[in-house]
Amino acid sequence: MSAFDPTQPRQVKRLLAQAAKARAYRLLPELHADAFAQVDCLACARCCKGYSPRFKTPDIVRIAKVLGLKQGTFIEQYLRLDEDNDYVTRSQPCPFLGPDNACTIYDDRPSDCARFPYTDEDVMLKRPALTAKNAEFCPAVQHVLTALAQKLG
Fold this sequence. Notes:
single chain; two-stranded antiparallel sheet
């Protein structure tokens, strides 16, 4: 049998479909903590450089206020509607990504950013397509999936 490759969507989806859910959920907090003990997000920032979170209404209200902008101005300047009718950033990398890979609105960032990469949440197993997509670029997701495959295998 070939080794598990977390960057291969078919392998990720197969792992998540076949996983013993209760056991996997119990393992996620430890695997998440271990991943983030080894992965330095500020050295990577691939999520901020190549993808956009959804900006939900509470995010837009909060961030516009922090930036001293009207909501409409904030949307016009920074956001666009994507194919799912969600607000996402107009440009890549994220306009709030600083030169040191730190978020310039970190304390007020969108909830999707605060939760990303969902490796300690049920989203990891319940949304296999999203997990597979995130695993293509996020070393933390790759780490968690590889460890999960080893522990469940």
